[in-house]
Amino acid sequence: MKINELPIKVRYQETDMMGVVYHANYLVWFEMGRTSLIEDLGFKYHEIEKKGVVSPVVDASVSFKQPVRYGDDVYVKTWVEDYDGLRITYGYQVYHADGKVAVEGETKHVIVKKESFRPVSIRRSFPEWHEAYVHAMEEQ
């Protein structure tokens, strides 16, 4: 499968009073990784939105393994975990420079019309995007 790796330098404002990254910031990092993966697949999310669709999160999960602290260098690894032509599940790992996994998670999305939020079949409406997701899951 195709995997995107995005470096993150932890900023002070991303931490809480305990000196560790505030839990909600991992979802922001997941979004950064997802956007970067979409670009690796040859698409720009803002260009996709110009076609009248958006991709809301319908489910998210985050599992915390070890803390990430201010000043740490970490990486967000992102891939397409599952795709059925309508729904997409992205997988994520945030890991330290030494390879130790800090956080794992996934987000599930559907593509919907921007005005009505009615689901759109990627397979039918965006065949190039569909093929890119299929190939991203197969790539070794």
UniProtKB/TrEMBL annotation:
Top-level taxon of the source organism: Bacteria
What's the EC number here?
3.1.2.-
Which Pfam families does the UniProt record give?
4HBT_2
Please name the GO terms that the record assigns under molecular function: hydrolase activity
Q: What sections of the sequence does the record tag as coiled-coil?
A: none
What InterPro entries is this protein classified in? 4-hydroxybenzoyl-CoA_TE (IPR050563), HotDog_dom_sf (IPR029069), YbgC/YbaW (IPR006684)
What are the protein's UniProt keywords? Answer: Hydrolase
User: Gene3D superfamilies this protein is in?
Assistant: Hotdog Thioesterase
Name the NCBIfam families on file: YbgC/FadM family acyl-CoA thioesterase
The family assignment reads: Belongs to the 4-hydroxybenzoyl-CoA thioesterase family.
Q: What is this protein called?
A: Acyl-CoA thioesterase
